[in-house]
Write a structure and sequence with these properties.
alpha+beta, 7 strands, 33% strand, globular, 5-stranded mixed sheet, 2 helices, single chain
Length: 117
C-alpha cells in the first residue's frame, strides 16, 4: 500500500480492501482494515511509525495489533464521528469488522487459532 509519500511503502501483515476500484497489482491505497503482528523488533514501528500514517487514510476503519508473544490484541476503530477509539480484545469478546460488503466478527480464538506459545 502506497502511503505518506510517494517513496514510502508499507506492506501490512493483513489488509482488507473493500473498494473494488482500488485494484493496483502491487499496492493498495484504500484499505478498510489493517492488522500487524507485533514482535519485539516490530512493535515500536507498528505503533509509532506506521499507525500515525495509517490513521490519516480516509478509508481505514480498523487497525489491529496482535502480539506474537502472548494472546493480546490492541485495536483501533473509527467511530461514527470519524474519531479514532481504541480497545483491547478480551477473552470471549468479539470485534465486528464491516468493510463495504464484507462483514465478520473476530475473536481472540480466531486470531490465535493454531498458535502455540
Amino acid at each position: 500500500m502506497a502511503i505518506f509519500r510517494k517513496d514510502v511503502y508499507y506492506y501490512p501483515d493483513v489488509m482488507l480492501v473493500g473498494n473494488k476500484a482500488d485494484n493496483a497489482e502491487f499496492y493498495k491505497e484504500q484499505p478498510c482494515f489493517i492488522a500487524e503482528v507485533q514482535s519485539k523488533s516490530t512493535a515500536r514501528i507498528d505503533r509509532h511509525e506506521k499507525w500515525p500514517v495509517y490513521a490519516h487514510l480516509p478509508s481505514l476503519r480498523y487497525y489491529l495489533l496482535a502480539d506474537s508473544r502472548q494472546r493480546q490484541v490492541d485495536y483501533f476503530w473509527r467511530d461514527e464521528s470519524g474519531a479514532w477509539q481504541n480497545g483491547i480484545l478480551a477473552e470471549g469478546q468479539g470485534l465486528d469488522i464491516a468493510c463495504d460488503d464484507y462483514h465478520t466478527r473476530l475473536s481472540l480464538a480466531d486470531i490465535y487459532e493454531d498458535v502455540v506459545f
